[in-house]
Amino acid sequence: MKRKIIYKIIAGLLIYFILNTCYKLYKNYTISETCLSNTFNNKYLDLSNLKINSIHNFDEIFNCQEWDEIFVTSSIYYYRGIGYLYTGVLVPSYDKFQYPEGTALLYFMKNNAIISNPLPLYSDNFIFSNHYGKSNSVRIKRKHAKFIYKKHEHTDFELNTLELINDYD
User: Fold this and answer.
1) Which of 32, 75, 106, 153 gives a 20 to 30 Å CA spacing to 64?
2) What global pTM score does this model have?
3) What is the CA radius of gyration of the chain?
């Protein structure tokens, strides 16, 4: 009797996982250019235009469409399958060789699904240093997506970073 219940629970979880993965794959294939992508490209395509110690509140900058979180990954060292198992976020497939090493890819999310194309954060003197987790990614809630563009303090090189401002309520 108990064995049947355990099998039903496992089967239910497996069906849920498969349906959830299919839903996220469908959402990834239906992503198109949005005002989020356009705003991002206008503001962050050339990071050398940003001023040192400038504040960037993504909640205010990207208010043209609803989104819940941003998801940032390393373009080279992020593996979709492992990342999906760790985070539950299935990113669209992309060519890793399309981006230079050191590029961070930013995605906007709504209801735990990606709603934007990968948006690259890259410059020769830029590093995204906000403590990637085990899957080389980080999730940031909309209300906490506030950054300061500043000199990276933990290096001997002339690097700048968008550092998360920890002013949680």
Assistant:
1) 75
2) 0.78
3) 18
Element (H, E) at 86: helix 80-87
Q: Could you list the pLDDT tens digit for every one of the 169 residues in the chain?
A: 788 888 888 888 888 778 777 776 666 666 666 788 888 888 888 888 889 999 999 999 999 889 999 998 888 778 788 888 888 888 887 788 888 888 888 999 998 888 888 888 887 777 777 667 677 888 989 999 898 888 887 777 788 888 888 765 4
Contact 118, 52 (CB under 8 A): no
Amino acid, res. 28: N
Number of C-beta neighbours around residue 5 at 10 A: 9
Nearest alpha-carbon partner for 141 in 169, 117, 103: 169
- How far lies 5's CA from each of 8, 14, 86, 123, in Å? 5, 14, 27, 54
Question: Domain extents for the chain?
Answer: 31-164
Closest CA to 128 of 148, 108, 156: 148
- Per the listing, tokens 């997506």 go with 145
